[in-house]
Amino acid sequence: MIIGIGGVSRAGKSTLAEKLKVHLEKAGKSVDIFCQDEYVKPKISIPKVQGVPDWERPSTIKWDSLTNDVQRSEADVKIVEGLFSFYPASLRVKYDAKLFLEIDKEVFLGRKSQDKRWDEEPEWYAEHVWRSYMKYGQKKGDKSEYLDISGEAPYDPKKILEAIS
Question: Which CATH superfamily groups domain 2-154?
């Protein structure tokens, strides 16, 4: 099984992937998580916006490497998570389940302002991330194939797994 998890930055994609992994492993399944952030091209090849590397576009991802790693994995369940996880049709069609975490813009901006994972970002960059999400990070293809999950409220990973099984 291959599960795709998408949504804007700070919606909880990585957290959901980890929670699903815990539940699946308790059920005796092997699980590999593929985080889109681990497949970013070298900084020198990333275009800039206002002098800042523009990580917020699908062209920054090494899609061939990500797709090949997913295909080579022998895990029972493979989880692909990232802002652009539904962008390339070549990967999207391989998903057996599509999970989409939703948060509103104000929640995103609040969480993003607390995000200290990356280098210092200018204030305007969060708005740039949101615009990129609206342009590239949305559900693609048949929207009825997606399970929408609130990234603002508690959820039960077990119920999510039941819904996609």
Answer: P-loop containing nucleotide triphosphate hydrolases (3.40.50.300)
